[in-house]
Amino acid sequence: MTRVAIVGGTGKLGGIIREVVDGLDGFEVAAVLTSRSGLDEVAGADLVVDASTPAVSIDVVRAAIERGINVLVGTSGWSAERIALVRPLVDAAGTGAVFIPNFSLGSVLGTALAAAAAPFFPSVEIVEAHRETKVDSPSGTAVRTAELIAAARVERGPVDAPHADQRARGQQVASVPVHSLRRPGVVARQETILSGPGESLSIVHDTVDPALAYAPGIRIALEAARDARGVVVGLENFVDIGVGASALRQAQGPDAAQGAEGGLAEDGVSGQAARATGA
To answer: What are the residue numbers of the active site?
Structure first.
């Protein structure tokens, strides 16, 4: 039996994760940590699941690593640069840290399709929308999509992004302009727009029911994180989606986040406010 400690277990995402763990053979919820809990409460768990906030997440990961416990991170705010800070600590501890920007299988497929198409179009932009209670932007999924697009375009170079110095042109993540909407009446939506001479391609993913959309991916991630070693980023590593494979493998390698070294810090978070996400 794998004992799971869920940090942020009373939030929206944390509640979904609790339900999945309760219904999954071989797993049980050992502890549910809230904002009033001390991180020492993860002691005794076999797996820590982080569904907290960007400000807290870095301490959750550190607490798990220091105790030799594998950690599954579903919290926003983990760009490639920030994850690079964790790699040497995880490797030294001999544990595993799995970062999942989005548990939805449809979202993972949409990101892979965008990465596969990216080398064929000079212009790529991302528009993402979430409910108004999500205060960080861009979303972790948008950041991950932009990073994979950049990895797929290593030989071709950065995307064309004219007038990027203007604030209305969005925030550039790995050269890709990302535009974030925060409004009522939407759960999560991302559109990747790829444009070339005389044509454009739009890849759209909508999350309508988070519990139904995330549960299959959460089950896959829990089982993978239990036995993982080293740092793994993205649900696509555990699902044979069959598209964009070369770009995904390239971005997953340790060289994808070169340049960051040393201890954990709050900097290097691409567009992610170190505040509560409302998740």
So the answer is: 130, 134
